[in-house]
Amino acid sequence: QVQLVESGGGLVQPGGSLRLSCAAAESGFSAKIMSWYRQASGKQREFVARVVLGSDTVYANSVKGRFTISNNYAKNTVYLQMNSLKPEDTAVYYCNFFPPQIWGQGIQVTVSS
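RESULT FIELD:
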């Protein structure tokens, strides 16, 4: 089973920025769809953003205009640039590659003053 390794999370003040990265731990694997989800404490996991075949992107309304998803197929890596962060963006963020369906371990993002 291919593992996904996430990085870039942490604590940031409201209005700040963070960049998350998620990389497949081995080569020879190429997902067609790379996505980010998040789960706030006490809430269900929700969709954040998706990139399909490196071109088509989809965003949740709550992050549209503030977050940007991108990827590097050669490095099997997907990124999430998060700008103008709000306290309600606080959550554990998970990357997802498909196919096959693989989840990252999750990384904490906390937006607080």
